[in-house]
């Protein structure tokens, strides 16, 4: 009970350590979502609008990658960014950019798979019209992405939710360095093991609030888009 009260006091008082951890977590996760969107949205649209040998296999693999184990992704990024790795010269291992890369890799399949399904469904509705207007492939992608922007926002929110709750990959590539690469999830794991429950509980409450806010936003967008369509 006392730990819970102390956790609320940390949040209410705007504890500097807690706020710094939350800020870093948001910056890393939002950056990862932005990068993943630049890759995942066009990739999903490409799979939705093109037909090529092995397309079915590509879709199955993409859907399977939605459940990529974070620790495996973290290990792969670690090997790439380590001094002996091909990208070791950049010197970004155990830094926030390394954490962004790991999270982006994790959420690209989520955004791509969800956007593929959305664009594919929308293509069935717009196919005759766009074909009659002789719109090229690039124009089709741009048109459908824009028209489905509200539905695709749900995919981005889903990606952000996965990134914000991730712990394994960012701990491996970030090193969980105090004041530099500690996110909410890695700090919760560390502080719980140390017995510092007020900080762990405080960050847990903030993380739950963020997850609830994300789901509420996704639901609101879906309801609003359905009303607009109706």
What brief labels describe this structure?
single chain; 230 residues; mainly alpha; MetI-like fold; 0% strand
Question: Can you tell me about this structure?
Answer:
There is one protein chain. The longest helix has 37 residues, at 96-132. The chain has a single domain, classed as MetI-like (MetI-like fold), CATH 1.10.3720.10. The termini are far apart. The chain has 230 residues and is an all-alpha fold. The mean pLDDT is 86. The radius of gyration is 20 Å and the shape is globular. The protein has ten helices and no strands. It has helices at residues 2-12, 16-49, 55-65, 70-81, 96-132, 137-147, 149-164, 168-174, 184-194, 197-229.
CATH class: Mainly Alpha
CATH topology: MetI-like fold
Shape: globular
Helix content: over 70%
Main pleated sheet: none
CATH architecture label = Orthogonal Bundle
Mean pLDDT: 86
The CATH homologous superfamily is named MetI-like
The tally of structural domains comes to 1
What gap, in angstroms, lies between the N and C termini? 49 Å
Please state roughly what percent of the residues sit in beta strands, choosing from under 5%, 5-15%, 15-25%, 25-35%, 35-45% or over 45%.
Answer: under 5%
Q: What string, H for helix and E for strand, traces the elements in order?
A: HHHHHHHHHH
